[in-house]
Here is the input.
Amino acid sequence: MIMEKNAIKRVAILTSGGDAPGMNSSIRAIVKAARWKGLEPYLVYEGYKGLVEGDIRPASDIEVDRYINQGGTFIYSARFPEFKEEKVRLKAKEQLDKKQIQALIVIGGDGSYHGAQLLHTIGIKTIGLPGTIDNDISSSDYTIGFFTALESIVSNIDRIRDTARSHHRCILVEVMGRYAGDLAVYSGIATGAELIITAENKMAIEDIVKVVDHQMNKLKKDSVIIIVTEHVYENLKEIAQKIQTETNVDTRESILGHLQRGGTPTGMERYVAAQMSTYAIELLCDGQSGLAIGLVNNKLQALPILEALAQPRPKYIELINKYAKINQEK
Amino acid sequence: MIMEKNAIKRVAILTSGGDAPGMNSSIRAIVKAARWKGLEPYLVYEGYKGLVEGDIRPASDIEVDRYINQGGTFIYSARFPEFKEEKVRLKAKEQLDKKQIQALIVIGGDGSYHGAQLLHTIGIKTIGLPGTIDNDISSSDYTIGFFTALESIVSNIDRIRDTARSHHRCILVEVMGRYAGDLAVYSGIATGAELIITAENKMAIEDIVKVVDHQMNKLKKDSVIIIVTEHVYENLKEIAQKIQTETNVDTRESILGHLQRGGTPTGMERYVAAQMSTYAIELLCDGQSGLAIGLVNNKLQALPILEALAQPRPKYIELINKYAKINQEK
Amino acid sequence: MIMEKNAIKRVAILTSGGDAPGMNSSIRAIVKAARWKGLEPYLVYEGYKGLVEGDIRPASDIEVDRYINQGGTFIYSARFPEFKEEKVRLKAKEQLDKKQIQALIVIGGDGSYHGAQLLHTIGIKTIGLPGTIDNDISSSDYTIGFFTALESIVSNIDRIRDTARSHHRCILVEVMGRYAGDLAVYSGIATGAELIITAENKMAIEDIVKVVDHQMNKLKKDSVIIIVTEHVYENLKEIAQKIQTETNVDTRESILGHLQRGGTPTGMERYVAAQMSTYAIELLCDGQSGLAIGLVNNKLQALPILEALAQPRPKYIELINKYAKINQEK
Amino acid sequence: MIMEKNAIKRVAILTSGGDAPGMNSSIRAIVKAARWKGLEPYLVYEGYKGLVEGDIRPASDIEVDRYINQGGTFIYSARFPEFKEEKVRLKAKEQLDKKQIQALIVIGGDGSYHGAQLLHTIGIKTIGLPGTIDNDISSSDYTIGFFTALESIVSNIDRIRDTARSHHRCILVEVMGRYAGDLAVYSGIATGAELIITAENKMAIEDIVKVVDHQMNKLKKDSVIIIVTEHVYENLKEIAQKIQTETNVDTRESILGHLQRGGTPTGMERYVAAQMSTYAIELLCDGQSGLAIGLVNNKLQALPILEALAQPRPKYIELINKYAKINQEK
Here is the structure.
């Protein structure tokens, strides 16, 4: 993976996949760290699509400074399945070559990593940074975006608990995560949710009903909050109605949806994003390529992208079961 | 409406209808203002239901102080249609008489006001405070709960704009309001929404499609946010899909739902709640009853409840149309 | 004040005096409303200084859209006492004439209004918008910036109350306001402060000591928060020490300072800013000039600037005294 | 350290030292986890002082549930140097014995750990949890309170940056940390501060002046933010004035102070607090005592308290120097 040192003079940045808070903080840190190391930073607009189309512009320090605490990605993201085709990727390389850019830092998820790996094999020095609110990149304990999405979820569940409690309600809250339960598990533990349901522990509706009935009707708890990862159930409204019919407890559902994606990145998000970003520049200056950066056991780490992609996902089932017992009244 | 002065020694407080942030601040202020005037404050738990069942307890200053900045209503709210029956209301009066409570302050919406009016006619001195996030009490320019719900909505739409912009999306955001457009109008103007749709201006789907197409495809705007009041359309998901099909713009819907109800009341909410609450105590000490308090033209005002209920609702249609023009690119 | 209609084709915007959250929202709304009315909007950078130096640039819609929810003023503000000299002002007019800009909207405080009035007298059509966190512009019940500063203060006093309570402390909190007590009064009422001290009711230290002693030592209240407007006392630390010495209550001071100026403008701030801004454009298109816009009794109003400057300030002393009684334990 | 299993039936909780957000979340989690394991949880009011005086009460689930997202510590904290005396500690043991409480969980800093260790040696089964905003407990990478304090600081520095930028100012921001630079380092990196100054890198004023002069006067940066740990300089106001005199850059200081202590604990705070708290109960049920819990390399760990207290503090000097280069314009 080692190439000749200081071979690079220009580095480009792109964001890909779902946007995540902290992407802008990361872009800023890469730009600033690049300058510090004497590199010229460039921004690729609209992800891999923009790369292929050549929408690549020199970065402005004053602009990236302004975005340090802004949600989303100001250089945009885009779906671009065409990047799987080799000729499309060669076009991307051509665009970078034309601008004498030797290196590319990609902030995104698994799919984005694949793209970075493919560019690595054709001579672009690439580094992948984990950017997704879902925390579903196994080579990093935490991804850029997860910290803020967690806080957006938690502050909204706090609001939901206020109203659930005022009316003795059960509220089912659907959170994002694609197929990863991290957001559900962290937010559920943080808010004392009576149930956390992810792909790991999909429960039969009758079993949910039993829990709600026991907590509300037998033990007279003043509210029940159930956190559910998206895609686990097809229709949360139906489940809410079923619970209400069976238990006579006023039950509602709330799908948090897109608000989980945006928002001012938290301080911890920006700290982690800055650290990963600076490390990416340091690795490039050290002649490295084809690596994915992670925060593992609270330390920065870089793995070959293919190895990073092959890491196993953590299991949360034990934690989920434990906190179901802790958070339900006895 | 004038009764003998200082006839009251004890005053009870209840919250009714949908919970709203600031109800707790209001309870606190009533308790503190009651003590200031030498009255003993009592709390009725679970709204009119608790009143009839006699769940009425002396207020604790240390407890209400803790709730000054908490969402929801810590004395709970409840639906209680039975209160329409006279014998049920007489039972309520009996409960108050038994505890030598002469006055009752009710925080809630129109339905709660009706209850207060009925109690007034059978000899309980009552005052109504406007408590609902929907701002749909015509006798007050602003209701307790509206300020905070507006901020919850705006901060979440800001998050949604971040992600919409990152992906060049159109996102339809459904906000609460029952049949009142206030939350939609205020949040739409505050966030620069390209369209605000309330019961006053239900648009045909084709017309929405035209706007999205023009903004995104013709003028290349980077995102479109459409705020819609609940109950205007039956199925927002279908509309989003229709827009996407017709315009090829990635379109999503987001139903903010119950998170709009809770949360730390804002400073302005708590300021207004305190002012209204203190005024309620002052009116009671002045021998008044059967009044609804409002903030009208930035001044506290009290109207006979029946008159308050008969006030006309404001119209927003002009404002909605103006800001549609202002916020859409030309 | 009426001039020929539609005489203007271009309108410039400048911000002046202390920055305030909502200034950016206002700039955006002016730009969008100008386009709606067929005017070309320009931005003046660095206030009156930039005006005289000719730092005037066409506004970009995409840029102002991004700033709708950003604190500060992205076109900067600056002190510029030289504007009092006539020849300097003539230079400003020259710069506007050169760019064929006939109108100027100034967002700022009293000093900024004076500048707008002087430009009005030499033929520039000017409108003043009240922009300051201090709420000290008498011709408007609320100023752009006040709403957000209030929330920044309240959320920080909530934090301070948490720690005061945990340790049975008295904490003196200094808030901004220049010589106006509005921020102190609103935040004090919102947070249940035991004392609010502004220029209207500067208290002798011995009298503060008595209150703290009574609340904490006699009545065993768990904390006391005292809100003080800046400039009332010279040295808050000394007062805190004096209280501690005399009462044996652990007492600290906290000067909120510059954090009160910035931050994401609240939804209400942005709503009011948009309304005032749109009204400014409407007035200009109607041929008006030399006016200051205000929100008075919850309605938009425009007064001749000199008249606006002559409005009397509200008195808060009664409110302050009332809430001292309400918020102190008996 | 191993004692007989299941010897305990009752466990008490106390908070000690400076309050920290997340203490209430931790109390809640301990209470809930205790019930889960069949233990009866008790609350000690006012730290070690209350322990000695016997202010120990059974915990209420409904009460602790309400405090899950509240700042401060609702069971209060207190200074109590008398606990160094053996006879005072024996009195504490007596109070616990009287109530048949065999175990005590202490949430606090180093001083609180010492107390827990001493109780351990006289037969109380004790566990220490790291609770302080300063993050200065070396046996844990993160302490309960640090996450939230970081966010309070960062959101306030964001506000300060808004106003600094609007007026081309330099603002010195003093943050807490006692003698630990963690809050300064994390918040400085998160906000892109041009300088971070802690006890590790106290700079001569002339050197600060040089940086400000270079950034603002030579390179025309629009603002400079300097984060300083408390206790490093005696008088920040003087330094600000010196900078202003020497550079002619408008310079201010802002001492964040007590607002850093309170506030709603973040989701991450509450997640970590819950995990540590549950672990404490599990250790006690496993017969352990005299241990301090930490989060080390993202994993829960328990060390003998004396060993925990002897851990070395991390050094930040390299990070500080690196980010000074990254965040200053070249």
About this structure: The interface with chain B takes residues 264 of chain D (CB under 8 Å).
